[in-house]
């Protein structure tokens, strides 16, 4: 049971609070992804788990063993935690093979064989074994760092933006491969990334950090659908946010009446819908009398299988609507062209956001 428990961790550098009361539970064998703006404390948190930073206050335990509290400090090399830092940090005076084999207890042929297997597992060609780190691309260096961390057979793996230097295709392939590799070995993993889709697809548990605080954690789908506030909503994808009056499970807003999942009666609040929850139907001149929400497509951004449209709601006769612009995600091939009149409807529930 490799459950990592972070309890009320705090870390201050001078007057800057890098970690502010961070608590999180990472279940055994799971994949937790940490996202957050630059400077929000992600690397500080990973370095603390690895044992390269120490909290001012708080407790950290792995598998029931206390790693850090006010009286204990288990040193990094005794934690059996693999850490791939943000910059890879290879030993510059060692070849690829020597970097990967650095911590292996085996020698001779057996060691060579193991290094070859590890190189293969991260899709590094065997002819790179004798190269020096400065002769590798950024993405290749990241893969050597990953192989070096895997060689230690860690009980917990910490990956700080390990795929950031890879191109989109290789990045997706590496992500799948690493996820499988770690799952097969039963290694609990914490990954930091700036890539939204990587975070949502890799994680069993997603944690969002902001200004040293962990603002929300949970299943990625839940965070995507039910973000705590507007900032978190926008951090995980595009969002349509608008004011509404909430009454008896319904939001009354510029789009009409939409059911809400989290009730807060008789109040005004900001609600959120994801752009793919809006549906457009092209209007013909003969539909002039069609009731409901009408809009005009003002922009169409085609990106292959999807198309992101900007539509402007048309004011109703009673003046309830104020020409609000909305983002809509539509099928790339069948999206209505710019300038066309459309009818807007919604799918599913709107989510009521917390006050900032
Ligand atoms: N050793 C240090 N001394 C002083 N300040 C530090 C130190 N390490 C980190 N910080 C500060 O703490 C904050 C959090 O840094 P951290 O590296 O954890 O951010 P991050 O979320 O990983 O950002 P990025 O996405 O840019 O990698 C930043 O404001 C940073 O400047
Ligand atoms: Mg960082």
Structure description:
By secondary structure, this protein is of the alpha+beta class. It has two domains: 2-234, P-loop containing nucleotide triphosphate hydrolases (Rossmann fold), CATH 3.40.50.300; 279-346, OB fold (Dihydrolipoamide Acetyltransferase, E2P), CATH 2.40.50. It contains eight helices and 20 strands. It has helices spanning 42-50, 96-101, 108-121, 138-151, 168-184, 196-202, 220-225, 230-235, and strands at residues 4-13, 16-26, 31-35, 57-62, 65-68, 81-84, 156-160, 188-192, 205-210, 213-218, 240-247, 250-253, 256-259, 267-273, 278-282, 293-303, 306-313, 325-331, 341-346, 351-352. A six-stranded mixed beta sheet has the order 6-7-8-3-9-10, sandwiched between helices. It has a five-stranded antiparallel beta sheet with strand order 13-12-11-14-20, with no helix packed on it. The structure holds adenosine-5'-triphosphate (ATP) and magnesium ion. Adenosine-5'-triphosphate binds next to strand 2 and helix 1. This is ABC transporter ATP-binding protein.
Query: Which bin fits the share of residues in helices?
Result: 10-25%
* Main β-sheet description: 6 strands, mixed
Bound molecules: adenosine-5'-triphosphate, magnesium ion
CATH architecture of the largest domain: 3-Layer(aba) Sandwich
Distance between termini?
38 Å
Structural class: alpha+beta
- Which strands sit side by side, in order, in the main sheet? 6-7-8-3-9-10
The best one-word shape is globular
| Poorly predicted runs of 5 or more residues | none
Mean pLDDT: 88
